[in-house]
TrEMBL record:
Lineage: Bacteria, Pseudomonadati, Bacteroidota, Sphingobacteriia, Sphingobacteriales
InterPro entries: HATPase_C_sf, HATPase_dom, His_kinase_dom, HisK_dim/P_dom, HisK_dim/P_sf, Sig_transdc_His_kin/Pase_MprB, TCS_sensor_his_kinase
EC number: 2.7.13.3
Catalytic activity: ATP + protein L-histidine = ADP + protein N-phospho-L-histidine
Name the UniProt record assigns to this protein: histidine kinase
One Gene Ontology cellular component annotation held by this UniProt entry: plasma membrane
Keyword Endoplasmic reticulum appears in the UniProt entry: no
Major enzyme class: transferase
Molecular function (Gene Ontology), one example: phosphorelay sensor kinase activity
Length: 411
């Protein structure tokens, strides 16, 4: 608005200069035309012409005290200059004429300008208030639309209990971010449900495994106290109780290992081939197993290993028992090799194999393959072996198809 006022005053100053100083060079009609244009745009009371001595040369502006010498000097230097007061806008133009060099000063009252500014301020305030109200209303609506799926999710979660905890949340109408949230929540709940299922199976396993030795202990004690026994009979009973207690201790060791409660064991230097031969001898003795052994290790130092003999016998024994069981006691091949400076043990059977969709979950606690339902087992042998191999930093890899399974242990 100020720029517009100044541009208007510049035009009026030029028109005033032509009217007052070019009268001798214009025809009467031309001069009258300039006069009419000037009087339509500005009053003579708002015009003054000053000569080189800053004295009034023409114009009817009543007061020139505000037009100081510094402004006049700026006009003569810059050709055009502006300043304003509380009541007026002022414009100064330097004009060279055959009568001399003059400064033409025009002014314009700020009354209309201030009214326009006041009107603009009112419009801006009204528009701003209407805008804020509109934004508030629209944001409330959008907030309701955006928050509605979250409210429904909260209501769904509140309705969850022990019976329907693992049921997924399904919303028919939603948007991508909420859908991602629902998928994440459903995946999280599914994982928790799996953990709960594992815990339940673990408790069932604990109950089953502890019940047998405890029942044997209590039964033996009950029978023994019914009548007096000889020293030999007491020694036999004590031997039985000792065996039951050892079985119970082994079961507890296996359970603590399987649950992850026990992660530190006594490690010492051992021979891997001796452990494997010990496992094979037990398999032959108890299962009449047919096991072929292939030894291809040139560096005997690779056979020495830091570990726990009992745990490794348990883990490798579980692998051999699985190979025999799921191949119906067919020939099992054990290969002891070296690869890139590491000891590698392969167990190959000709059994039923592991389905492709099961092989990624086969190491989990209590998981059993779909094609293994006809064989006795609890689904803990391989998971326990995997825990033991992890403790010994032995990589366990499983490859399987319908022709059999290959276990690869990399030390």
């Amino acid at each position: 608005m100020e720029k517009k006022e100044r541009e208007s005053l510049e035009s009026k100053s030029l028109l005033a200069a032509i009217y007052y100083l070019e009268q001798d060079e214009l025809s009467f009609l031309e001069h009258e035309s300039v006069k009419n244009q000037l009087l339509k745009t500005i009053s003579r009371k708002n015009i003054i012409l000053l000569d080189k001595d800053n004295e009034r040369f023409n114009g009817d502006m009543p007061s020139i005290e505000l037009i100081d010498s510094s402004f006049m000097a700026r006009v003569r230097k810059e050709r055009i200059a502006h300043f304003d007061t509380g009541d007026f806008f002022y414009n100064g133009r330097f004009y060279e004429d055959n009568q001399g060099d003059f400064v033409v000063v025009t002014r314009e009252s700020k009354d209309d300008f201030n009214e326009q500014m006041h009107s603009l301020l009112q419009i801006l305030v009204i528009v701003s208030l209407l805008g804020i109200i509109s934004i508030f209303i629209v944001s409330q609506y959008l907030g309701t639309v955006a928050y509605e799926p979250i409210i429904r999710i909260i209501d769904e979660i509140k309705r969850k209990d022990t019976k329907n905890f693992n049921e997924p949340i399904v919303l028919k109408k939603s948007y991508d971010e909420i859908n991602d949230l629902i998928k994440t929540y459903n995946h999280f709940v599914d994982r928790i449900a799996q953990i709960f299922n594992v815990q339940k199976n673990f408790i069932d396993y604990v109950s089953h495994e502890l019940r047998t030795p405890i029942t044997a202990l209590l039964g033996t004690l009950e029978v023994t106290k019914n009548k007096q026994r000889s020293v030999e009979e007491y020694e036999t009973v004590i031997s039985q109780l000792k065996q039951y207690t050892a079985d119970l201790q082994d079961t507890l060791e296996n359970m603590t290992l399987l649950s992850g409660a026990k992660t530190s064991f006594e490690f010492g230097t051992l021979r891997v081939d001796e452990i494997i031969w010990s496992v094979i001898e037990n398999a032959v003795l108890y299962h009449q197993a047919r096991i072929e052994v292939e030894m291809e290790v040139e560096d005997n130092e690779l056979l020495s290993f830091e570990g726990n003999v009992k745990l490794l016998e348990l883990a490798i024994g579980n692998l051999v028992e699985n190979a025999l069981k799921y191949s119906n006691n067919d020939v099992v091949k054990v290969s002891i090799k070296e690869s890139q400076g590491r000891l590698v043990v392969l167990l190959q059977d000709r059994g039923i194999g592991i389905l492709e969709e099961d092989i990624y979950n086969i190491k989990q606690n209590f998981f059993r393959g779909q094609n293994a339902r006809g064989y006795q087992g609890k689904g803990i042998g391989l998971s326990m072996a995997n825990v033991i191999f992890q403790l010994h930093r032995i990589a366990l890899e499983i490859k399987s198809d319908s022709s059999g399974t290959t276990i690869i242990l990399t030390f």
